[in-house]
Amino acid sequence: MRVGRREAGATLRLSCWKLCKGCHLGLALALSMVLLLGLVLPPANAQNDTEPIVLEGKCLVVCDSNPSSDGAITSSLGISVRSGSAKVAFSATRSTNHEPSEMSNRTMTIYFDQVLVNIGNHFDLASSAFVAPRKGIYSFSFHVVKVYNRQTIQVSLMQNNYPVISAFAGDQDVTREAASNGVLLHMERADKVHLRLERGNLMGGWKYSTFSGFLVFPL
Question: Which pLDDT band holds residue 139 (cuts at 50, 70, 90)?
Answer without folding.
Answer: very high
